[in-house]
UniProtKB/TrEMBL annotation:
Subunit (UniProt): Tetramer of two alpha and two beta subunits.
Residue ranges constituting the TRNA-binding domain according to the UniProt record: 40-155
Compartments it resides in: Cytoplasm
HAMAP family per the UniProt record, alphabetical: Phe_tRNA_synth_beta1 (MF_00283)
Ranges of residues in domain B5: 410-486
Biological process, per Gene Ontology: phenylalanyl-tRNA aminoacylation
Chain ranges passing through the membrane: none
Cofactor(s) for this UniProt protein: Mg(2+)
Name the record gives this protein: Phenylalanine--tRNA ligase beta subunit
Length: 806
């Protein structure tokens, strides 16, 4: 809502206030202010000019040479290329050495050999946006009224000397979507009087509206009230210059005297109006109803729209002529030939208007006000004011009477409250007189009974106030938020800290990032197909009843699908080396359950090179074992070191059957790891990609081996190497476990340093070589202790696993 301080000053005195100060006060007290501006700022030496003569340029097929009276002794010669320039016009002239919008300086120059003393301007060139420029002047210069005086600055003629406060109205303050509403607010802020003009309608007694038009009853839930007036013998022409100024300062394009009046009343009262051409009605009986499914309407913007059964419309007989509260129809629009105008004022169902405007993407000034509310007390007054102005500006007569259905008697809302309640909530110590004074500033009625209870009577123009909390907010606003004392809470303070689960989740993220992966965040909704892939456990899908799109119909049940979309996005943009992880929740629903369980998971996806080649290191491509190493690093860093095993599987059709494994901790399935199936990779247009996904909630619940600090031993460690000839079916884990069980209390570490299968090894066997590290933090180890422990290890390996010491 763009508020002109000059217009506002007609209702409440503000000319003694600086516009910036007024804007800042409104922002601190009522609603946000986006800015305060004045269109003339930064421009100078722009005056009214009168074109005395206009002849074609001898060296151009589109330029004209004009002799322009700008108030000096001699006319100025100006070359102009506008297609609508002509002798006898009053125009906007930027003199030599003037400044126009965009900080552009106009100098004396020559154009194709002819002297040009300045520039004849269009509105856009002096700072008016295209959206407010009258259509007849959109592609040329602007022609001023005949009474414009040559040589006078153009600021006053075009309203450029008015300061404009751009207020951003919140949904609860629809009353401020009007000049009168803003006037009441400013008057309350500064404790000043409001002086609002009220129209007097001069009706023509020769005709009555009920003889020319009728209204059919309508559901009160759809509209209440609905009113019509008529103006006959109207001449369509431009509206007065002062009205055009106010409209384009409010961001509205002037059209003609009828349409401009409806827009002016919209900005003044906040009451949307619509004007119909009476002679274009098929029937003289209007109806407010819901549309029939599939009905068609061509709106004023030329678009044919197929209506829904939830749309509220105005019908002329069986024909829809307007989308109620949103936009009128093309068939009954006011044109240059209109002679009789039917004016509509109403309060439509806000929910219906909002849904229609959103579905049709027709968010207009009118729909914005219907959605936020209308002052029912001024519906008739706004309609009367518009009818009288159209009659005056169009040389017409107002037809006697008003047609109305669903009449509403505006009533004040009474709210009772104790002053003590206000002070307790705000932490203030205001006297009863001060509180009463604030309500009186707001223009509310006030009464106090013998118990001290205040009864506040709120007028219909403040329909946002209905309960005690609303009154307390009003007191706080007008008293001033800056004046409310600041106090610290008296409750005992509790030091905040992460829960165990929160700490592990954050640690898991940090661990994967330290391993070289970057975090990705995917949408929680996906397709049915993607949702059921990569499932660790069986679960039911959860689908939305009203999805936003076909790609967001189902709650996700895995994280890998989202990561693969991210990989595809990157590779489509030539980023081939990708290492991503995501931590988030998946939604798994048990059979017959109404709601899904949300479970913490963590997953990763890697493709391309993990490390590029450098001068001293070879490149490192992503493979199964690199991915497995990252998973093991994650789990060990979280303190899960015992009972981890990987079991090969081919049951996942979206995973490579020979490069996929389930991850177990003891007998608990906690995740999967492997390569994405080549057919799925081809479908997603990605290169070979390795993924893993872990049930993070299970990892959180598992017992942990908490790392504790162990001082570095002061005594030397001892190592023993052993090489074993091992059958192929014996695994490294079996050998390591046997060594741990029999290595004695000084065994500190076991390292596999060689694996060999070749010519000197029998078929079905492999050679494994280990280093055993012994350490005693309390003293120096001797050979006897080490030899006894080492011999026991060798003996047990031979007995239990039937290996041969080489």
């Amino acid at each position: 809502m763009k508020v002109s301080t000059k217009w506002l000053n007609e209702y409440v005195k503000v000319d003694d206030l600086k516009p910036e100060e007024l804007g800042e006060k409104i922002e601190r007290t009522a609603v946000e202010v986006d800015g305060v501006s004045r269109r003339a700022d930064g421009q100078k030496k722009i005056v009214v000019g009168h074109i005395l003569e206009c002849v074609p340029h001898p060296n151009s097929d589109h330029l004209h040479i004009c002799q322009v009276d700008v108030g000096d002794e001699e006319p100025y010669q100006i070359v102009c290329g506008a297609p609508n320039v002509a002798a006898g016009q009053n125009v906007i002239v930027a003199l030599p050495n003037s400044w126009i919008a965009g900080h552009i300086k106009i100098k004396k120059s020559k154009m194709r050999g002819e002297l040009s003393m300045g520039m004849i301007c269009g509105l856009q060139e002096i700072g008016f946006p295209d959206a407010v420029v009258p259509k007849e002047f959109a592609d040329g210069i602007y022609v001023l009224p005949e009474d414009a005086v040559p040589g006078e600055p153009i600021w006053d003629y075009l309203g450029m000397d008015e300061s404009i406060i751009d207020v951003d109205i919140t949904p609860n303050r629809g009353d401020m979507l009007s000049m009168r509403g803003v006037a009441h607010e400013v008057a309350a802020i500064y404790d000043r009087e409001v002086s609002l003009p009220h129209p007097t309608v001069k009706e023509d007694g020769s005709s009555k509206i009920e003889d020319l038009l009728s209204l059919e009853d309508a559901d009160q839930e759809l509209v209440a009230p609905y009113k019509l007036r008529m103006v006959k013998n109207v001449t369509i022409k431009p509206s007065p210059m002062w009205m055009q100024n106010r409209l384009w300062n409010a961001g509205i394009r002037p059209i003609n005297n009828v349409v401009d009046v409806t827009n002016y009343i919209l900005m003044d009262y906040g009451q949307p109006l619509h004007a119909f051409d009476y002679d274009k009605f098929d029937s003289k009986k209007l109806t407010v109803r819901l549309a029939n499914e599939g009905e068609k309407l061509t709106t004023l913007d030329g678009e044919e729209r197929e209506l829904k059964a939830t749309d509220l419309v105005i019908a002329d007989g069986n024909r829809v002529i307007a989308l109620a509260g949103v936009m009128g129809g093309k068939d009954t629009e006011v044109s240059d030939n209109t002679q009789t105008v039917v004016l509509e004022a109403a309060v439509f169902n806000s929910s219906k208007i909002r849904k229609t405007a959103r579905r049709e993407n027709l968010h207009s000034e009118a729909s914005q006000r219907f959605e936020r509310g209308i002052n029912v007390a001024t519906v008739q007054e706004a309609l009367d004011a518009a009818a009288q102005m159209i009659a005056e500006f169009g040389d017409g007569q107002v037809v006697s009477g008003t047609l109305e259905i669903n009449h509403v008697d505006p009533e004040n809302v009474d709210v009772e409250i104790l002053p003590e309640r206000i002070n307790k909530v705000l932490g203030t110590d205001l006297t009863d007189e001060a509180i009463v004074g604030i309500f009186e500033q707001l223009g509310f009625g006030i009464a106090k009974d013998e118990t001290g209870t205040l009864t506040v009577s709120v007028p219909p123009r403040r329909w946002d106030i209905a309960i005690q909390a609303d009154l307390i907010e009003e007191v706080a606003r007008i008293y001033g938020y800056d004046n409310i004392p600041t106090t610290l809470p008296t409750m005992p303070l509790t030091e905040g800290h992460y829960t165990k689960a929160q700490k592990i989740i954050r640690d898991a993220r940090a661990i994967l990032e330290s391993a070289g992966l970057s975090q990705a965040i995917s949408y929680g909704l996906t397709t049915e197909l993607k949702a059921k892939r990569f499932m660790l456990n069986e679960a039911e899908m959860t689908q939305l009843d009203f999805p936003m799109s076909s790609d967001h119909t189902t709650l996700r049940m895995n994280l890998i699908s989202g990561l693969l979309d991210d990989v595809a996005y990157n590779q489509a943009r030539k980023v081939n080396d990708v290492a991503l992880y995501e931590q988030g929740r998946v939604f798994l629903r048990e059979k017959d359950a109404e709601r899904p369980n949300d479970i913490e998971h963590i997953a990763g996806a890697l493709t391309g090179l993990f490390h590029e080649a450098t001068w001293h290191d070879a490149k490192k491509p992503v493979d199964f074992y690199l991915t497995k190493g990252i998973v093991e690093y994650l789990m060990s860093s979280l303190g899960i070191t015992d009972g981890i095993r990987y079991e090969a599987t081919a049951e996942y059709e979206e995973m490579h059957p020979g490069r996929t494994a389930k991850i177990y901790v003891n007998d608990e399935l906690v995740g999967l790891i492997g390569e994405v199936h080549p057919s799925l990779a081809k479908e997603l247009k990605i290169k070979p990609t390795y993924v893993f996904e872990l049930d993070l909630q299970k990892l959180i619940d598992l017992p942990k081996n908490v790392e504790t600090y162990v001082p570095v031993s002061k005594y030397p460690e001892v190592t023993r190497d052993i090489a074993l000839l091992v059958p192929n079916e014996i695994t490294n884990d079996q050998i390591v476990e046997s060594i741990k069980q029999n290595g004695g209390r000084f065994l500190a570490d076991i390292k596999l340093f060689d694996l060999y299968q070749g010519e000197k090894i029998d078929d079905g066997f492999k050679s494994l070589a280990y280093t055993l590290v012994y350490r005693n933090s309390e003293g120096t180890l001797n050979d006897d202790e080490i030899n006894q422990a080492f011999d026991k290890v060798v003996k047990k390996l031979q007995e239990e696993l039937e290996v041969t010491v080489r």
